[in-house]
Specification:
The complex is a heterodimer of chains A (142) and B (360).
Chain A: E1 6-10, H1 14-26, E2 30-34, H2 37-46, E3 51-54, H3 63-73, E4 85-89, H4 95-98, E5 112-115, H5 120-130
Parallel strand pairs in A: 1-2, 1-3, 3-4, 4-5
Helix pairs in contact in A: 2-3
Chain B: E1 2-4, H1 8-20, E2 26-28, H2 31-41, E3 45-49, H3 57-67, E4 72-77, H4 82-90, E5 95-98, H5 103-163, H6 169-200, E6 209-210, H7 212-229, E7 233-237, E8 245-246, H8 249-265, E9 272-280, E10 283-290, H9 324-334, E11 338-344, E12 348-356
Parallel strand pairs in B: 1-2, 1-3, 3-4, 4-5, 7-9
Antiparallel strand pairs in B: 6-8, 9-10, 10-12, 11-12
Classes of the chains: A alpha/beta (142), B alpha/beta (360).
Chain lengths: 142, 360
């Protein structure tokens, strides 16, 4: 099990987290959870996950954007490995589209964006592509 | 503040009296120089003599109103006739000061003018704050409304995805129905949010324009799955040299999505939807024509109203919030275009939109 991919699931809605954690664990992933942007940063510092699944509106309206920005710009890329981010939110537009006139928008743009409720096949495909695997139960332990 | 007067004695005494009150005062003999300074520094207050050689106070007033409407203008009038003062006020001056005046009269007029300026600033600030608060409120409410529905839907989705085989048929059926009802509620929130945004307008900001020949194929592509499922054929005629139309891409795309979505939804198996865009006057006409169920004549005048849904045996079971066409109308109005519906019950409906051309 040493090669099991580790996913950090960040969302302030307990039920949403429970459901998605159940889904990901059923696919063979190891899932850790955080319920705020602040907790997410702490978890990431403790041990880097292979992927962050990140909500936007948590302790404040832009918490997820803040985490993205911190991971991209406050860390030293020579000492830390970049963590891919799959942003999931009920906001229909990804940051680049939502703030299309703001020069800062690319700084909070995740690797992939998906709206809630999650379309499961698409979600698993996104997770798989960011982890560099084809997706699915067996591939998770590749 | 700025004082423009060709009479040196007036200029000097204005500066002396007002400087003593702690105001920063710049004085100008020539109107053109004073105007240049106003444009550069946009002072809260301008005192200007009405009667000067070269350029009189009225011309200065007109120019300031045009270029810096926030600057409060007080006119100094040498011939203190009510008629001249009234003319100046009509032209946009806030107050007038008849010559000769005492230091107290000057101070009073200046204080009143500055008070006026503070009121303008405050109301502008309040207007902006209100707009921002409204936008935040919409985002917050829609998030709060969506969150519980999203959580429930996610549980059901995961349940079906991971354990569908183990569920008894009736449980599967009820979960399926629950999913449909949740989708209805989410669609309603989505449409309400879109309408609230659209009603704030602002899609026609300078430079905002949409290239239809690029966007229409994308919207058609998006609708392809729904059309295939409904066995409806999608056809489009869009000349590649169509001029760009005015308006934010997201707004114009929302408009097209709603019209095409309806044309597919209220159609019949084997039917078709035809989208045609043509140059028309100083803009573009977009016609979305379907061979669907049509709209009864007595309902047609109301289709753009909020929450209006045509209820006939044929529309039963078609989901919708009754906000789609309201959103379309709000977008078209914001872009200063027109929208019209023509329909024959049982034969089909045509929506005709005209949007003004926009410069890319």
């Amino acid at each position: 099990m040493a090669d099991t991919k580790r996913i950090l699931l960040v969302d302030d809605d307990d039920d949403f987290r429970t459901a998605v954690q159940g889904l990901l664990e059923a696919q063979g992933f190891q899932v850790a959870c955080a319920r705020s942007g602040r907790e997410a940063m702490q978890r990431i510092r403790e041990g880097r996950p292979d992927l962050v699944v990140l909500d936007v509106m948590m302790e404040h309206d832009f918490a997820g954007y803040e985490v993205t920005h911190s991971l991209r710009f406050s860390e030293d890329p020579t000492t830390t490995r970049p963590v891919p981010i799959l942003m999931v939110s009920s906001i229909e537009l990804d940051p680049a589209t939502r703030f299309s006139r703001a020069v800062e928008a690319p700084m909070i743009q995740p690797d992939l964006y998906q709206t809630k409720p999650l379309d499961i096949p698409r979600f698993l495909a996104n997770v798989g592509s960011l982890l560099g695997i084809a997706g699915g139960r067996t591939a998770a332990r590749a | 503040m700025v004082v423009i007067d060709d009479d040196e004695a007036i200029r000097i005494s204005c500066r002396r009296i007002l400087s003593r009150e702690g105001y920063a005062v710049e004085i100008f003999e020539r109107a053109a120089e004073g105007l240049a300074r106003v444009r550069e520094a946009t002072p809260p207050l301008l005192l200007v003599d009405l009667k000067m050689p070269e350029m009189d106070g009225f011309a200065v007033l007109e120019e300031v109103r045009r270029t810096d409407p926030g600057v409060v203008v007080v006119v100094i009038t040498g011939y203190a006739t009510i008629a001249t003062a009234v003319l100046a006020m009509k032209a946009g001056a806030y107050d007038f000061l008849p010559k000769p005046f005492t230091p107290d009269e000057l101070r009073l007029v200046v204080e009143r003018g500055l008070e006026r300026r503070r009121l303008i600033d405050t109301s502008e600030r309040l207007r902006r704050e209100k707009e921002l608060a409204q936008r935040r409120f919409i985002t917050f409410v829609s998030h709060q409304l969506k969150s519980p529905l999203v959580a429930v839907k996610q549980y059901l989705d995961v349940l079906l995805y991971t354990a569908e085989d183990t569920l008894p048929p009736r449980a599967r059926g009820w979960i399926g129905r629950s999913e449909e009802r949740l989708a209805e509620a989410l669609q309603l929130i989505h449409d309400w949010l879109a309408l609230a945004r659209v009603e704030q307008g602002g899609f026609a900001s300078p430079g905002a324009c949409t290239v239809l020949s690029a966007e229409i194929p994308r919207v058609l592509e998006q609708q392809a799955a729904a059309a295939a499922a409904a066995q409806v054929r999608l056809v489009s005629e869009v000349p590649p040299d169509l001029p760009a139309v005015r308006g934010d891409v997201l707004a114009v795309v929302t408009l097209l999505e709603n019209l095409l979505g309806n044309a597919v939804k209220y159609n019949r198996p084997g039917g078709s939807v035809r989208l045609r865009a043509t140059r028309a006057g100083e803009g573009v006409e977009i016609r979305v024509e379907d061979t669907g169920i049509g709209i009864p004549a007595d309902r047609l005048p109301h289709v753009f109203d909020e929450f209006v849904r045509v209820r006939t045996p044929e529309t039963t079971g078609i989901p919708g919030s009754g906000l789609g066409l309201t959103i379309c109308r709000a977008i078209v109005q914001d872009l200063q275009g027109t929208i019209r519906a023509d329909s024959r019950e049982g034969a089909g409906t045509t929506f005709t939109v005209w949007l003004p051309a926009g410069a890319p």
